[in-house]
Design brief:
single chain, alpha/beta, Rossmann fold, Dimethylsulfoxide Reductase, domain 2, Barwin-like endoglucanases, six-stranded mixed beta sheet, six-stranded mixed β-barrel, globular
């Protein structure tokens, strides 16, 4: 359907040829910034932060401020194309949209007729998508076809299981409220590159006397400014949190009254923490017991105290239990019910909107596949996947066991469709590529998962080339395949109305529901409560069946391999560590959002190695090295760094094949094993060796 551009804000100089438009950023970051975009002759010339979302405060990250380079990149897919060369060669011939949709419709129908719909796998991930671009018409298409269901477990699956199991759909602290905290613990997160607006809030809190603790194997920029930095070995966050819990109980500093009134399982949690004295946790994690004691005393005596729990601590075999133990701490210590106290992880629970439910149909019972093991499934699954439809994702560069993913994409009997904005490494292996719009070219609606804001996204330029939106393309496929129904919301306005009818806002006086759609029509941005920054256990309470925190939920206990809160070592001190003695982490950087924007970063990657580890291997700065294990190897350069602890190396997250000498990235070294909860990926379980080439 044609898109209508928003009415532009007129420039102050009426003779100027450029115009400014207001929109919002949906990219994978907690901040959900509001934007002001300057456009000239249908080209994006400047992107700045507006103040429509107060958290944005007029500034944005360098990634988004330079997003115009992505929109107008020479890597942009401008029209549909069909493969004519070998898979992986990126040799395509342009075709029309009509020809592309005819070909795709025919292949979908043929696959269903000859192999069944279970041979079709839609592959996407939702970090940078809104309510109109994922689980909308795409869900309608694949559900009605009966295609495989994708378990999107590459990120946040263990932590989501943990906080939903303990707290239900309870939103966390609002980032603005960290300014009121007297102690801030940043655990497994690096706001300086992801969630930059939290940094000045933390700095203001520090200026007024708050203490800052950072728990991260790396010495991040924020860690250098912290009062205390703990650098545990990857995968050992669980034992640190359990040691703090035991210490609170043993020293009669647990809030017994809060635990009795608001929790279940407190005694069982206490029992499971017993193996972990501060000294035992220190021995396993590689931190000093004295530093752990300092943290325990700070947390017990500081009020309000806040924990910013990130996703770094979940990226290992103990990830779900680690998250559960970390976010159990404010319940044990009684840190809720005051502004500036509690925890923050994801605030998506502030908005219970489900675009896949707009059609009112239950999810069908179909074959379910975990995205973490795409490589294995493409190579060995029976019956096999015959049609892979990739959108909103770049699996070759983002999934574990990269070598197997590549081999799977090379299958001659696999028909692969890639619907994307630019020619990704995955798209090079496609049989059919389709050009997708960016968020600056289509309408959408997006909530923040840090800031508690719901904002519309408006197009500021027409689609580049022949790009089309997800809503349009999947809707058209439904029509061509005869999957439309008379009751479907076929246009965006109807779809939006039905989506927003699911949600409501509490009114201040009567307690009656205020229709969310009307609220959004009246304002450009909506918050879940009039206070904008609700307080846990004052304005918000657990959405469990009994309204209590379940510290040892039965379903999580049964899901974890050896029971919730059970620590499973990752090669520390065993034979695996002898062969591959270095733990590898792959952290976010200032260049990319997951792998998005990777085509703009042309630098050869550097593996960060502690000076002591480098000296033991005869490595000097700038050496070309081989980072390897039994899964694969990455050829890159080495950088000596004091910012990673001894025994740990870092290869950046979000690399593309052109960022290394041999085309492999850190994910070629990552096993496709599962975390203890949610089938999550274990990126930080990779153990490697580094040698000079």
């Amino acid at each position: 359907m044609p898109q209508t551009l928003p009415k532009p804000k007129q420039p102050t100089d009426e003779s100027a040829p450029s115009m400014s438009h207001l929109t919002s950023c949906p990219l994978d970051c907690p901040d959900s910034c509001s934007l002001e975009v300057t456009v000239k002759e249908n080209r994006v010339v400047k992107i700045e932060g507006s103040r429509r979302n107060p958290l944005t405060s007029g500034f944005i990250c360098s990634k988004v401020s330079k997003f115009g380079r992505h929109v107008h990149s020479d890597k942009r897919i401008l029209q549909p194309a069909r493969r004519r060369g070998a898979k992986g060669s990126a040799d395509f011939e342009p075709i029309s949209w009509e020809a592309a949709m005819t070909l795709l419709s025919q292949r979908l129908e043929e696959t269903v007729a000859t192999a069944g719909a279970q041979a079709i796998l839609p592959f996407c991930y939702g970090g940078s998508n809104g309510y109109f671009s994922q689980d909308a018409t795409d869900a309608r298409l694949f559900r009605r076809l009966g295609a495989c269901r994708l378990e999107r477990a590459i990120c946040a699956a263990p932590s989501s299981r943990a906080y939903k199991g303990l707290y239900g759909h309870l939103p966390g602290m609002a980032p603005e409220d960290f300014e009121h905290s007297r102690l801030i613990i940043v655990w497994g997160a690096n706001p300086s590159v992801s969630s930059i607006h939290l940094v000045p809030i933390i700095q203001r809190a520090q200026a007024s006397g708050a203490k800052l603790v950072v728990i991260d194997p790396r010495t991040t920029g924020l860690a250098k400014k912290a009062d205390l930095h703990l650098a545990p070995l990857p995968g050992t966050d669980l034992v640190l949190a359990l040691a703090l819990i035991r210490w609170l109980f043993d020293n009669h500093l647990a809030d017994v009254d809060f635990l009795q009134r608001h929790t279940t399982g407190a005694e069982e949690l206490r029992r499971r923490s017993q193996p972990w004295t501060l000294e035992a946790a220190a021995a396993v994690s590689g931190v000093e017991a004295s530093d752990l004691l300092c943290l325990a005393e700070l947390y017990a005596t500081s009020s309000p105290a806040a924990i910013r729990c990130g996703w770094g601590s979940e990226r290992n075999r103990n990830g779900g239990s680690a998250t559960a133990a970390i976010i159990a701490l404010p319940a044990v210590a009684g840190k809720f019910a005051q502004r500036g106290g509690g925890y923050m992880m994801s605030n998506s629970a502030a908005w219970q909107l489900d675009p896949s439910a707009v059609d009112g149909e239950p999810e069908p019972s179909v074959r379910s596949l975990n995205m973490v093991r795409l490589g294995r499934d493409l190579l060995s699954l029976h019956p096999p996947i015959e049609l892979l439809f990739v959108y909103n994702a770049n699996p070759l560069m983002t999934l574990p066991e990269q070598g197997k993913v590549r081999k799977g994409l090379e299958r001659q009997d696999l028909f692969t469709v890639v619907f994307d904005q630019v020619m990704t490494d995955t798209a090079r292996y496609a049989d059919l590529v389709l050009p997708a719009t960016t968020f600056l070219e289509h309408r959408d609606l997006r909530h923040g998962y840090g800031t508690m804001a719901l904002q519309p996204i408006e197009p500021v330029i027409p689609p580049v080339g022949e790009a089309r939106s997800n809503f349009e393309v999947f809707g058209e496929l439904c029509r061509r395949l005869g999957l439309d129904r008379p009751t479907d919301a076929l246009d965006l306005d109807t779809f939006k109305h039905r989506l927003l009818a699911q949600g409501s806002l509490p009114t201040e006086d009567s307690g009656q529901a205020n229709h969310l759609g009307r609220a959004l029509d009246q304002d450009a941005i909506v918050f879940p409560t009039s206070g904008r920054t609700p307080i846990q256990f004052v304005d918000l309470f657990p959405k469990t069946e009994d309204g209590k925190i379940h510290l040892v939920p039965q379903d999580l206990d049964e899901e974890t391999p050896e029971g919730l809160y059970t620590y499973r070592p990752n090669g520390h001190g065993d034979g695996k560590a002898m062969e591959f003695p270095l733990a590898m982490v792959s952290a976010a950087t200032r260049f990319t959002i997951s792998s998005t924007l990777g085509h703009l970063n042309r630098r050869i990657a550097e593996v960060e190695v502690h000076a002591d580890d480098a000296a033991a291997r005869g490595l000097a700065p700038g050496d070309r090295v081989r980072v390897w294990n039994d899964l694969g190897e990455v050829h890159c350069q080495v950088r000596l760094s004091q910012d990673v602890r001894p025994g740990v190396v870092q290869l950046p997250k979000g690399l593309w094949s052109h960022n290394t000498y041999n085309g492999n990235t850190s994910n070629s070294l990552v096993p496709a094993s599962y975390a203890d909860l949610g089938g999550g990926a274990c990126f930080n379980d990779a153990r490697v060796e580094v040698t000079k080439i």
